[in-house]
From TrEMBL:
GO cellular component term, pick one: plasma membrane
Membrane topology: Multi-pass membrane protein
TM region(s), chain numbering: 16-37, 44-68, 132-152
Species assigned in the record: Sousa chinensis
Family statement: Belongs to the NKAIN family.
Disordered, as annotated region: 192-213
Entry keyword Transmembrane: yes
Protein's cellular compartments: Cell membrane
Any single GO BP term: regulation of sodium ion transport
Keywords assigned: Cell membrane, Membrane, Transmembrane, Transmembrane helix
Protein name: Sodium/potassium-transporting ATPase subunit beta-1-interacting protein
Any Pfam family: NKAIN
Length: 213
């Protein structure tokens, strides 16, 4: 939900780099939920790896809008320099008074944004708060993903693939050469050497050569 909310505001500001990153994040979150429901550890591992990358991306966004390390929030880095839009909160921040651009005889620039006046929070602070929320959610998701992977792996290692799967009893067919008749003796699943309680075992016959049949 928080990723979708952020994607909406990124679309309003035409910030193409955050749009692509958030879209990838939404896809990976859906993949991680599918892996959790279907007990697919590989999908959950993919989500865990992306969660670490998502935290790194949001740390960069915070540094970008707070202008840490020589970064400038007025640059076209997040828009790939394709438009002059920056952030939707640039003029629609909390408590901002919208200021209409002054009329001029020059060519109209529909992509120009006029910053708001008297904003309670600067656009950099709003974007930083959004990124901080994403970092918090990603850390919780990373911890949960690691826990689910460990639980699923332990269940797969401890599962007995042999015991309890005996749908058919073991049967032994004895042949009497004298009468050419066949008698089927069903043995329990515990082993061939055990006698069936409801049917007596036939006496072994001896062939003409003295060997037991």
């Amino acid at each position: 939900v928080t990723a979708l909310e952020r994607q909406v505001f990124d679309f309003l500001g035409y910030q193409w780099a955050p749009i692509l990153a958030t879209f990838t994040h939404i896809v990976v979150v859906i993949l991680g939920l599918f892996g959790t429901i279907q007990y697919r550890p590989r999908y959950i591992v993919v989500y865990a790896v992306w969660a670490a990358a998502w935290v790194t991306w949001n740390v960069f966004i915070i540094c970008f809008y707070l202008e840490v390390g020589g970064l400038s929030k007025d640059s076209g880095l997040l828009t790939f320099s394709l438009s002059r839009h920056h952030s939707w909160w640039h003029e629609h921040g909390p408590g901002c008074v919208h200021k209409e651009p002054a009329a001029s005889l020059g060519p109209l620039d529909s992509q120009a944004l006029v910053p708001g006046i008297g904003c309670t929070l600067e656009r950099g602070c709003v974007e930083a708060l959004h990124s901080a929320l994403q970092i918090l959610v990603a850390l919780v998701g990373f911890i949960c993903a690691c826990h689910v992977v460990s639980v699923v792996t332990e269940e797969e290692d401890s599962f007995d693939f042999i015991g309890g799967f005996d749908p058919f009893p073991l049967c032994h067919v004895s042949e009497k050469p004298s009468s050419l008749s066949f008698e089927q003796v069903c043995l329990p699943a515990g082993g061939i050497g055990e006698e069936h309680p409801s049917r007596p075992q036939p006496a072994p016959t001896t062939s003409s050569f003295g060997d037991p049949c």
